[in-house]
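Help!! Second protein's tokens look totally different from the first
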Amino acid sequence: MNYATIKYYDIANGPGVRTSIFVSGCRHHCPGCFNEVAWDFGYGQPFGKAVRNEIFASCQPDYIAGISLLGGEPFEPENQRELLPFVRNFRALYPNKSVWCYSGYTWEQLTGSVPCPARCEVTDELLSLLDVLVDGRFVEAQHDISLRFRGSSNQRLLDVPKSLAAKSPVWWEDEQVFATHSM
């Protein structure tokens, strides 16, 4: 797997200060995508051991809230297989930090209730290691800059542990000050 970029000290892709990993490779090709260059699976640099260790080290300070996985598309099967051991190791090192993931695939597709070419032998385990899934393709006609942590109004911020327990999508609850704020 390749990665397009890594943003250390990111505040745009989840709550708090995070390290965001933008993987390469995406088959969605959403019109208006902000990261079209990352559609190519060969773009960027290899996601090797040294890079992974740099990411782990970047998360050591207490003020780092966690990691966010973006793309490209983290849930392309090729990327899932590489991300699973990485996220397992992150969880072992930092059990109290959060893992967010952005995917153009929906909860229903990733959990198998709707057929999806992205589902593979590691999908269920990778999902189980996430705290929040921001699901759904970016839809340019529904683009809204006032939305927190998502680009278009069709996308959902799902609390993965609660969704798995309920066997249906459960929205992530934002801090009250943000949940009631309107622009």
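Here's the second one for comparison:
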Amino acid sequence: MKEPAQGGGFWSALRRGGVPSAIASVMGAPTAQQMAFIRSLTREQRRSEVLRTPLERLETVVFDLETTGFSAQHGDEILSFGAIRVVGDTIMEKEQFYTLVNPRTAIPEHITELTGITREMTDEALPLMDGLHDFMSFVGGRVLVAHASAHDKAFLNAALWKTSKVQLTHRVLDTMMLAKWLEPQQHQTYSLDELLTYQGIPIQGRHHALEDAKMTAKLWVAYVQEMLKRNVTNLADVYAHLSHA
């Protein structure tokens, strides 16, 4: 299974005054530093001014997680983070993030078959706190986008609470909900595969966190372009339409 190059965590952390986890470990810095960074980041979210940002300039991070199962409340854990930055309807191809993390639990055989992630791969991976810290550094204060986001939000919230005793406060947009508004009665399940096929987006590397994030980013861009055609100009407009969808 191909692992795309990881990006963003080091320089983002430096810009925000943090130290990446690998260097912090060498320097003997305590995990409290990572906790403090994550807590400060969550406190800065939900600012109302982002609602007025024109969609053409809205900065988002489209992300996906691979996990050991489907229930964060019943012991399933994150296996990998994948994300890519988008500005308006432009995908920033060079601004990508990917990392495996060690779930410290068994990986079911069907999950290995689905994702290609083995126990041997995760044994050498970052601890959850380090991977989460680097992912949140990459995200910064940007709006998050995911497909069927309830799953990803549940796992992010579980990881944030476990490591830092905070919950996700970032705004999260769901491409499934956008499709139900923009393309009503056009789909049977509104699955990622179905929507990608409908939009003519090639499907490749499914169930790899970064590849899924990149395909979801293309879907998000298609919806941004459609919303602009409908004179939906900012995030406040998006929320207003979704509330009536």
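Reply: Different proteins will give different token patterns, so don't panic. The beta strands are 59-67, 78-87, 90-100, 143-146, 172-174.
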